[in-house]
Design a protein that fits this description.
heterodimer, A: mainly alpha, B: 254 residues, alpha/beta, six-stranded mixed beta sheet, globular
Chain lengths: 325, 254
Amino acid sequence: MRLLLVLALLLAAALCLSVAFGETGLTLGQYASAFADPASPAATILFAIRAPRAAAAALVGGALGVAGAVMQGLLRNPLAEPGVLGVSAWSGCAAALAIALGLGAIPGVIEGSALAGALAAGAVVAALAARFREPEMLVLFGVALAALGGAMTALIFNLSPSPVTLAEINAWLQGSVANRAWGDLGLALIPMAAGAALCAYAARALRMLTLGEEAAQLSGLPMASLRVAALAGAALLTGASVAVAGVIGFVGLAAPHLVRGSVSDDPARTLAPSAFAGAILLVLADLVARVIPTEEELRLGVVTALFGAPLFALVAWRAARSWRA
Amino acid sequence: MSAALELAGAVVRRGPRTVLADVSLSVEPGEMLGLVGPNGAGKTTLLRAALGLQPLAAGEARLAGRPLAALSEPARAALAGYLPQERRVAWNMPARDIAALGAVGLAPREGQKLAEACLAELEIGDLAGRGVLDMSGGERARVLLARLLATRAPLLIADEPAAGLDPEAQLLILERLQARAAAGAAVVVTSHDLALVARTCDRLAVLCEGRLCALAPPREALSAQILAEVFALDGALVETPAGLTLAARRLATN
């Protein structure tokens, strides 16, 4: 409980920083005017541009953090995350297809496609998980699924007629929370809440899986349905994240590792703190993306990958310890 | 009173191969059964079949007289606890938390208390707070056995619980399982250490190539003939002040 409180305070601080700072520097007087006059330009910057953006980063980061924690627990693999199982790849691919088909202008179509892509990949993974109980097999299938999703996306690029479409797809795939409105977030909240509920329901299965598949199967828990719930929950969270912000990697990997030590490595108790940790990470990453003075604003997916990839290597290095043991 | 575990004509096939051929046996409450046989004889398959982890091509498995197929997951867990051979633990959880995973149906605090008692029973009570990945292999094996003991199931099945441990720890583990049998549980253990199971088990089941070659008290089950035919050993069980031991040499194969 104390951990969650500390993380909530840190998230609040990160959100405040994210709203207070950005590309446009404001004077103290302008900050004051923003609070005094909701119609002032400063108020627009703070509350209509930066605040929904920060909230989007927090939501997406939180969702990806939980999705990563669930997948790591489910696969008993510290390197698992939505990207590993191909869920992100298919989500991104479906969104890219919607853009390439010229449906991007219809509100909600890209987002719906992203969610559908994630759920489709999640369904395939769930079917495979029911058939093959070994987590190693599931990771291998995930790699294949991710590669196929990547190839399909490349194919869409390949066959795309116009450079404008290409740029649009590219922007989507690199991930960003720029220019998000409050309305976009409200819509994403529904699948996110459903996903979070499913993950919370499946948490006890993750704890039991610490001992391996067979011990878990005989623990008295309805493992088959809990496993499907966990995968569906993670797919919903991932799909909703991609719908809001495009493809953003490594947050799902990093967040659980930052908090695991504080909950005695218990995979069930990792979920809630991972949500906060993922939210904090992404809010800060988005702040970095905005304040680094580059000609084109840095894409959020690029920032998380730059930090995340070395972390991935570090986690692999540390995981080798438990695999040797 | 019905047997804690009963296999009737159990057959398991893997592809074209029959890995378990018409095996029938039962384990009564209060009995400790040792399951022995050369590598690949089907010991683990038999345990998995008995627990419903391995589908039967023919025959039936019953727990406490009830067909496995009729048991819900919680009912099955209440009737049998299983310690798999695989000792890999995914996360570095403290020993207390790992052992408490066995305490299904108890409130968290009571579960932890029971877990600590089981760890103490295996003489690693002082390691309750240590992460299992920071432990030696032998210590971790005891933590996992403590998890099995914490299930308080009337049937305890342990696949190679003593493998890779030092002699004192091997005896300790088998003695603790013996104590559970003495307290009324049915216990099934597999081992490659014939002397160890001969000393601690009431009966031995000898598997060879998926068939049950002997099912009897240790001295009968490990007769000179069985030792020769199944294990390719020339020797016998010998009574010593400390219990049975095995004196044998490799049977010349040519």
